[in-house]
Amino acid sequence: NEYLKSLDPSSQMSVATGTIGRGVMLASVKSPLINIGSNVENSVVEGLVRRLSTGQFTKANADLGKDYIKMANRIYNETGVDISRMTDIGDVGIGGQRVLGKDTVSAIGPGNIRKAGRFVEDMVFKKMLGKPDSLTANYNFTDSALLNATKLAKNDAGLARKYASDAMLLNPKTAEGKLIRAQAVLDAQVSTYTQRTWMSATSERIRDFLNRSTGDARLGDWFMPFVKTPANVISTGADYAGLGAFKALKDFAVGVKNGTLKEPERIRAIATNLTRSGLGLTAAWGLSQLFDEADFVGAYDPKRSQIEQLKNSNYNAVKIGDKWVSMDWFGPLSIPLTAMMYSKKGDGYMDKMRQFVVGGIDGVSELPGLDVISAGYKNAKFAKSDTAAEIGTDVAKGSIDQIASRLIPGIVTDIGKAIDPNQRDTSGGIWNTTKSKIPFLRESLPTKTNVLGEDIKAESPISTILFGSRVKTANDSPIVAEVDRVTSALGKGSSFTDFKKTSSTQVAQFKEKVGAENFVQATKEYGQLLNTELEKMFKSPQYQKLTDEEKMTLINKQDDQAKEKIFRQYSFRYKKDKSKPLPNL
Question: For the ranges 184-188, 206-210, 283-287, which has the lowest average pLDDT?
Answer without folding.
Answer: 206-210
